[in-house]
Amino acid sequence: MSHTPPASNREYHRQIADSLADSFLRRTLDKFAVEYRASRDKVFSEVAERELIGRIAEVKDSAAKHIEDLYARFKQEAERRGAVVHRAADAAEACAIIAQIAAENGVKRVVKSKSMTAEEVGLNAHLKKNGIDICETDLGEWIVQLRGEGPSHMVLPAIHLSRDQVADEFEKATGEKQDHEDVQRLVKVARRELKPKFHEADMGLSGANFCIAETGTLAIVTNEGNGRLVNTLPRVHVALAGLDKLVPTIDDALTALQVLPRNATSQRITAYTTFIGGAGPCAKSPTGRKILHIVLLDNGRTKLAADPLFSQVFRCVRCGACANVCPVFRMVGGHRMGHIYVGAIGLVLTYLFHDRKIAKTLCQNCIGCGSCKAVCSGGIDLPALIGEIRARFSREDGAPLPARLASVAMKNRTVFHTLLKFMRFSQRPVAGTDGFVRHLPMALFGKHGFKSLPALAPKSFREQWPTLERRPAQPKMKIALFAGCAQDFVYPQHLKAAMKVFAAAGVEVVFPMTQTCCGLPLSMLGETATAKEVARQNIAAFAGDCECIVTLCASCASHLKHGYVRLLGAEAEAFAAKVIDFSSFVHDKLGRDVLRLQPRPEKVAYHASCHLCRELGVKEAPRELIRRAAEYVPSKEEESCCGFGGTFSAKFPEISAELMRKKLENVTASGATRLVLDCPGCAMQLAGGADRQKLNLRVTHIAELLADALAIGLE
Ligand code: SF4
Ligand code: SF4
User: Is the CB of residue 216 less than 8 Å from the CB of residue 277?
Assistant: First the structure.
């Protein structure tokens, strides 16, 4: 596995297949993901996580706005303390400045500690071209340097490599046989090899986590002693950092330092936190003082600082947490989930700093689960940025044919619904009686055959609506029901079960017939103009009087509530305020005493849909409802993505299948015989997977469980 950017989509899929077949990588990343989550939760339980993240966001947003003032102050203060501060407009200039510093000081050998900014500008290759020997001294970075690779993680650069692979590299580097089993011994070998390099080096090269303007101080956070040796032993020290590392005060840096190590490695504080306030004493230097140069890199950052959406990128402290929790990273590793920078921020930075074509390929490989946003140290809305990049590609390069067709079909509700009815008619010869497409050889589906496909229902919900009971004798409340296309046309049974629950609770239901698809698939395909049009159609359809707009689809709920406001601003606010997901409606609005439920004698597991638990923050309501209706059996990683992700499962079936298998494995291990969820997309994925694997597992919507558990309805 190497960090070779994919030349085409086809090549990218081949690389993904290689990663998925790498059993060591899969095991390691799986173990890491589970352990990281648990230790992160623990270490954040001691601090006010959201408040700290909010403060980092505030400081960094303000820094982006005042970047020129901060730069001027930092330069003045650092130079007053004996440093020389340079500003590099782009990667080439940063490399040239550093090569020039090396030439002026007769530098032949450089030791380097970890710096993603150096990776960004391609510094190692440039110095090598100038005849300078540059040696990485962070253990992981040294290993990947020996292999001629880039880091596969911003904090854990060699996480993709096994002990055997490392031992092999050390054998090549030292010419000695290594004990593959003895990790401590391998570390000692690295120490022995690297130690003389520090003494021989003429220059130390580092990054910086924070550049503190009020004092001109650099703050460098590391876990290995190499960083301090790099900064102290050679007579010349060059620190390279992006302009986004500027913060006004030491207090701001200390605030971020409460989050950065917790988020990166689940540590309260890293082993070394170094503050360098100017050029200190240095016995090796002819002047007796360290020759300290600080290179601040622009490379598009000042333009970015003024961008109303992408300036959020300034909040990134490079903690790597967005990779640690990303389900796609977990499957394929950082060399396939990024270019130089990895994880969610890697997709964004590839677009902003590196290669548009590579970014176009990589940005497709985001399932939109929101896990990265939920943990980001700076509260960056990473899925929204990735979505915007996709939308820009679609606008600038023209949308791919499926997106264009979807856009044309969904713009007009009548056309869209007629199309669905036509599909229902055409599928007749292959539709089974149990809701799945049955009479086709699975071989036809190729990589998509990992789950049974749902068939369109013989009668949509809207076709059944006129015959349904929707107004109780003495209604307590009036709601409007938003169906969403998947439940309207594929799973009307979800909505019918909800109707039973509403009737039992004395809720009057209206169903505006002019409602249409929520438009989320269009937003995901980058079809923003049509997504806006569709949003306006739905807002108009629900203009009538009702207390709430209830939907049984978590993805629709999240898009109607947040996506519409992002798309249309104030125009969508009143509508969005009324939208509520089914579980929250039953749990929070109806309250505990309205429904009488008879707990069912069955073990029920829960899958928390990404849009419900992260985008809408609904966590306890569905679990509490399950406890009232059956025996709730918690399963491992309830909140991890099922692998559906709308069009993702069609675009990346190999990843989607693995995520689904993992989810079903955890659910069956819990002993559950029923799995409930809040989203028809997850239902398609997990019911299809359970059927394909012939599991003894019924997959239903939570509304169906409640309808099954209704005792007598009204008290
Ligand atoms: S939204 Fe999910 S899949 Fe996409 S980058 Fe973030 S964590 Fe990864
Ligand atoms: S985007 Fe957020 S989570 Fe990712 S590295 Fe940056 S600060 Fe950390």
Answer: yes
Phi, psi of 479 (to 5 degrees): -125, 160
3-class secondary-structure state, position 608: coil
Question: Is the CB of 259 within 6 Å of ligand 2?
Answer: no
- Contact indicator for 358, 6 with CB cutoff of 8 Å: yes
Q: Could you give the residue range(s) of every CATH 3.40.50.10420 domain in the chain?
A: 47-303
Q: Is the CB of 625 under 6 A from ligand 2?
A: no
Within the chain, all domains assigned CATH 3.40.50.10700 are found at 596-714
Question: Which CATH fold topology does 442-590 show?
Answer: Glutathione S-transferase Yfyf (Class Pi); Chain A, domain 2 (1.20.1050)
Half-sphere exposure of 581 (CA within 13 A, CB side): 30
d(CA 633, CA 606): 8
- Average model confidence (pLDDT) for the chain? 94
Residue 46 burial by Cβ neighbours in a 10 Å radius (0-12, 13-18, 19+): exposed
The residue whose CA is least distant from atom 8 of ligand 1 is 326
Q: Is the pLDDT at 421 greater than 90, yes or no?
A: no
Residues 613-634: pLDDT tens digits?
A: 999 999 999 999 999 999 999 9
Identify which of 371, 609, 611 to mutate to test ligand 1's pocket (most ligand atoms within 8 A of the CB).
Answer: 371
Q: What pLDDT, on the 0 to 100 scale, is given for residue 445?
A: 76
> 596-714 belongs to which CATH class?
alpha beta
> What is the pLDDT at residue 479?
97
- List where CATH 1.20.1050 sits in the chain: 442-590
The answer to whether residue 3 scores a pLDDT higher than 60 is no
At the topology level of CATH, where does 47-303 sit? Answer: Rossmann fold (3.40.50)
Specify the ligand 1 atom closest to the Cα of 366.
4
Nearest ligand 2 atom, CA 382:
1
Computed from CA positions of residues 38, 40, 42, 44, in that sequence, does the dihedral angle turn out positive or negative? negative
Return the DSSP state at 5: P
